[in-house]
Amino acid sequence: MSLGQILVTLAGLAAIAFIVWFFWMGKRPGVKAGLSSSGYQEAMILVKGGYTPDVIVVERGKPVRLNFVRAESASCSEMVLFPDFNKSAKLPEGETVPVEFMPDRTGEFEFQCQMGMLRGKLIVE
Amino acid sequence: MEKDPVCGMEVEPQEAAATRRYQGRTYYFCSEEDASKFDGAPDRYATAIPSATTGIADGVTGPVRITLAVSGLDRSGGPALAGALRASPGVHGASVNVRGGVVAIDYDPWQSTTADLVEVIRAAGFGTGEQTTRLQVSGLYCAECVGRIEDALRAVPGVVGATMNAATNEVKVQYVPSSADLERLTRAVESAGPYKAQRAPEASEKEMDKEAQANEREYRSLMRKWWFAAAVGVPTMLLSYPWLFPGLRDLFPRGSQNLLFIWYAMGAASLGVLAYSGSQFFVGMWGGLKRRSANMHTLIAMGTGVAWLYSTVALLVPQLFPSEEFTDVYYDVTVVVTALVVLGLAMEIKAKGRTSEAIKKLIGLQAKVARVIRDGREVDIPVEEVLVNDVVIVRPGEKVPVDGLVLEGQSAVDESMITGESLPVSKKVGDEVIGATINKTGAFKFRATKVGKDTALANIIRLVQDAQGSKVPIQRIVDRVSAYFTPTVMILAILGFVIWYDLGPEPALTYALIVAVTTLIIACPCALGMATPMSLTTGIGLGAQNGILIRSGDALQAAERLNAVILDKTGTITHGKPTLTDVALAPGQDEAEVLRLAASVERSSEHPLALAIVEAAQARGLKLHQPGTFDAIPGHGVSAVVDGRRMLIGNLKLMNGEGIALADLEERSKALADDGKTPMYIAIDGRAAGILAVADTIKDDSRAAIAAMTKMGLEVVMITGDNERTARAIARQVGIARVMAEVLPQDKALNVQKLQLEGKKVAMVGDGINDAPALAQADIGLAIGTGTDVAIEASDITLIKGSLMGVVTAIQISRATMRNVYQNLVGAFIYNTAGLPIALGILYPFLGILLSPLLAALAMSFSSVTVISNANRLKRFKPATAA
User: What is the pTM of this model?
Assistant: First the structure.
């Protein structure tokens, strides 16, 4: 094996290790939804290349209202789905769209765009 | 403390910046500005300043009368409700009108609120016809505005609740439409301060248009990107391989100065393509990386980016590479891949637009205007402003604007767009009409019962939208896989690079690069991600067009796997309403005359069997007379005198008691009873005249539908509270072998469970009212709706048309959709599992085949378009009619 081959192999393995760590091992901190005056746990979520914030922590048994604002035109993010709550909403560009539901069981629930390219997580405690 | 009528703030009278006297009252203002506003329109501000403590306008003393609509009333419930209301604090009197379904309450607004009254009605076991509307309020200037507007609305008689969302400036009002209306609500908001209120827009055509426009904009932008990339792509392709073309070969020989210049030009042009046409890939990649996720954009951006970087480094600093053969450029890969993927995205948008056509069609059905009688005049108003209890006029050829009950006139109405029923349905006084259906023959007036987003159509649209956003259970597995998919592809690309570099033939670096780029580009997470949502959207839309509302993807998948169907008898297999089926006559009697006399008597009775006889007589155009005397004999029947003739209608006991000879009629009566019918003896002037038999008749297509279900391999079971004999008789007529008879309503769920314990996936079909627990227990609950009542909670699937054929169609649609889902999933899976190894060069050692990145881009674009096209194929599904 030449020096070049050894270097390329090592660099490749390092890159793979980086990908594994970067995409799968990292823990993302969640954002706690605040309690608004109307009794909802509310959070604003920006939809642009992904959901910001993408991990939202709510309490069980209190109604949740997530306000989505879509700031891009790529068609794949035009819908947001909460499959576990049977909820979905179309997100017209630039408008605030509230999604309301009642988290009645604890656990982690994914939300995502229709094709599953953008993902976020709702943690019910 | 006084209240400034303009801004609504509290003012100490002695500290007021200005005062005005108007209609014998002094008003205090916190600023001169408010006072001048007041001068401009004193009426607007002076009317009904709600008291700060109770929300009731000053000047109101003594009880207020309010009329609330109550649902679920029957004769027996009326007095109980009135009693419960009178017993609650502040109520002076309550009268219940059972027929009209309303209760009028005189109450003291200082002691009770409308919400309290509604609570009492609910506690007594009745529903209130509450309605929710959203008002868009502008002019909010302070944090207290929210509370002030909510209070003002709650003070309006008839309003049950109001909640405002300051973020969207929308207030959600629940109100009882018979006493509050939109105008009063807006006035209440506007009198609470300098606000303007109007009804917030529904998910209407306008919004849909906006979405279509956004899609169109996105499509055009993608097409512009494609044309730019293609325009750069064609010369780039030609000039990347000049030695293949006779003319170019001589102009740009390898290693020449000319070629180098052309490469510089291509490098710059392709950078332009990346920056313009490929911008969304890089933006998308960056967005993903920020939150540590990868998607299709990441793969394409990396693939094209790596190709461009390599080429540019090779061009600018060739001395980095060990030999000249490495210093080739791959700008064609960058440009052509970007062009093809962008074109693929544009085609996806077009195809996706077709997928959601069904819902667009539904929304497009809405009528735009309604002709309503207001203050005794006919006025055309936008359909959004029609209120409950408005009288609406519909002429032939016009659309019925909202749901309601016919008051006057008759016509035939085409309901195919809602129920899927192809023949026009005849409507007479008292019949229900559904909004968005088309009036065919006659003009009629109707009273609006459901408006805005409570109409059947609005409910259908909402149900379909929610269902289209749900998931087929199998998709959840795919989702879990696809979260790992993209990083795995990147790892594979790196592995491919390393292996080709270490072990591959010379020039190893070139091969390694091509393999890595091809791998990144051929992988198509999109095809996997879109496989089920596209089919689901199409399938559920297809159901809606056939009058079948599928609530979620779970329901769709469960409906595909059914192997037994339980049918409720009453209202499902049968019409659920008795009709006259047989007339048996004693010798020498005239059928029309017997029926006419019997119907005249029964007109005074309120028994459902009596109604069947009256309807039959009216259907034959017989003229009915008022009976002279009328006596109900409990447990026996009735006696009466009509046209001077003494009539007896009743059972065997009545005839025996009166000493009437029945001859062979008794035998014929038994035979009728054996067929599951209810016979009634008729005697005229002391002599037996005949028998009228009444029965709940079987719907026209029940038999055909049951045959179709059996043919689909489903076991069909009938469940009923009737006795075994009657149940068997009906089952025989419709071709059902297995019967569960004498089942009490509360035991239906248990019987469903019994069948499930036999290892079967069971569907329960019922009317959704008294069999809700059974519907919920079944693997799939199908509710046969009637007309506008589409949002039946307990059901997984609602059939709008009351026909059993809908069950067959629902199962067929589920099967077709799930088949489509599996096709898409298998296709996408095979594509990716076959494509990736080929891209990695697994065929090279054996066949010497290595995929070009250009072909990979073509395949990738093609695969996602294929998935969507396959889903669109579903739309060609036609519900099969029974053989």
Answer: 0.68
